[in-house]
Hints:
Shape: elongated
Low-confidence stretches: 1-47
Largest sheet: none
Oligomer: single chain
Amino acid sequence: MVNSPASCGTDVVENNLGAIMINVANSKTLSKSPSNHAGEDGTRSRNRIFDLGFLTLVGLAILAVFAAYSNHFHNDFHFDDSHAVVTNVYIRDLHNVGKFFTDARTFSSLPANQSWRPMVSASLALDYYLGAGLKPLWFHISTFLWFLIQLALMFLLYRSILDIAWPQLSNRYVALAAVACYGLHPVNAETVNYIVQRGDVYSTLGVVAGLVTYIRVPSLRRFGLYLLPVILGAMAKPPAVVFGGILLAYIFLFEEEADWHRFWPALRKAAPALLVCLLLAAVNVKLTPKSFTPSTFPAWAYWSTQPWVVLRYVRSLFLPFWLSADTDLSPFQGFSDPRTLIGIVFCLGLLSVAFWMAKRRIHRPISFGILWCVFALAPTSIVVLSEVENDHRMFFPFVGLILAVACAVTLAWGRSSLEQRARIRTAQGVVLCLLIALGFGTWKRNEVWRSEESLWRDVTLKSPENGRGLMNYGLTLLGKGDVQDALHYFERAAFFTPNYYILEINTAIAHGLVRHPLESEAHFRRAIQLQPQDAQPYFYYGRWLASQGRTNECIQAEKIAIQLNPALVEARYVLMRAYLDRAQWGALGQLVNETLQLVPNDKTTLGYLTRVENQQADMLNAEKFAGAQQTPEAYLNLSLLYYGAGRYQNCIEAAKRALRLKADYAEAYNNIAAGYQAMSQWDAAIDAAQQALRLKPDFALARNNLAWSLAQKKLDKK
Length: 718
């Protein structure tokens, strides 16, 4: 039998800085007093936590994490970053920070993706300000710094849990090795590289910080201050609300000794946290807009897939070879699917291990780690989301899972028949090789996340049946001017996602680039048919119409787009250009003012404002000029300016003054027709257009105005 914790020799531990816990593997009993968990060795280890040798290891671990992520700081924006960061006008002004907490529509430029995550939006706005624009470097620096803070707190958490379970000087090495594995694990690169998913970092950090505060600063418990980081974390992403369950598991396992007769006292202790987390969940639901569409999957199909997904997540801890930014796993057809049954058996087995390990204090860190993983996976397993599986969802549960695995391996290794010093040296070598392998894997995943092309190319290889992935890779080819190959990938995508309206839009754009107007318009119209309540089909269709010289139709399409999504600034830009081309100064001025209320310092909109202001000055000059010169041409020009400003009655009056000076002025009659037409006075418009054509039979504008007025008059009669 190996020695008990009390007889551990510190000379061995201190001379082997990578030592793991080896002396408690066969211990049958430990102190059950919560106030005396750490014991003498635990106390000495805490007192000596900052010795030079250990600090050297800590520094090397930090450098290793920096080295593994050193190639990620200039990686591009990806996926949901497009609508939550790149096209989100609200993060461009720090004055909107208050809105982030009261209006969830500020989170994204797409209504279907708007959810309440004010801490994420506030941090994005700060990064935008610090970087003076959309510079990925600043966003990555911000996320990475908080990731490092999380790792530091995870060390304190792991160390605390280990000291409670087995008071041992080497706990700090086990904790450091476990944190290093987490920090270097390639799975977490899926979150650290994904800018908008920093919400996972913030929410996980909040839970870890809350539990560390609860454990290490018990004097703050009665004030509930340990809940502050949890509240902030829940404002970044909803899964943080499972903190109440995680805290209950901790109290039950370590303060109430996993005694089911003492479960109710544990529940009472955790009640404040459970209540606050319940309120946070309710607030999140209340403040999430009705436009938010998390999924279109049937709930039963999504739920039947989740046990299998949990198994795949756990597999990725040990074999992270199939990481994909966008999986092609589809919902199962029901709970009779063999994979569902395998997943259920696995999940039940995992829970069984957790409850079995709870029987002995020395095994309870394993139990706690597994329960942490289960609680952390619960929100994305229960709430039906748009993807049944997503690799960044492993970030939160892996905090517990790595703790469980590290403790299990440590205990198993402690039972090895090797001589003690040999065990330590072997463990050091194994841990070093493992960390190198994990760091290299993270480095390679960072390279995958380098650009849109590299990311979606990887998706097509890892998830070849993902229509969205195939489409997005096609988009990168389209951006390079390779239209034919892009269309090839769009066709492949259509096989897997035949009713995907975004794919229809992109296919239409590609056909437009190779001058296939009939195919292009057909795909645009099908996109609108598939998703008539989404602004994007109308926006891109309107932009295409403008390129075809169909400005009036473009204006109508962009108006619908803005009505459906007022925050879609790109649609406003297209409409501004169309108004400018049509010299509709009044409509342009109104649109500019509305847009500046939304985005006060937008450079593009300010440019149009300058044009509107110049036009107003031109109108004043034209009025003075016409009054002074009294020529038909001067009044005709003034009539045009009035029409552009939306002053249709003034337009008609100025044209009539031109006719008094030149009775056969066909252009003046046409302006009168346009003015009456704008006011829906069809008979007067028809009469004026006919007069213009009598004087100038080949006058195309007058002919178009006459045709439009006749058509509208018929519609009114119907």
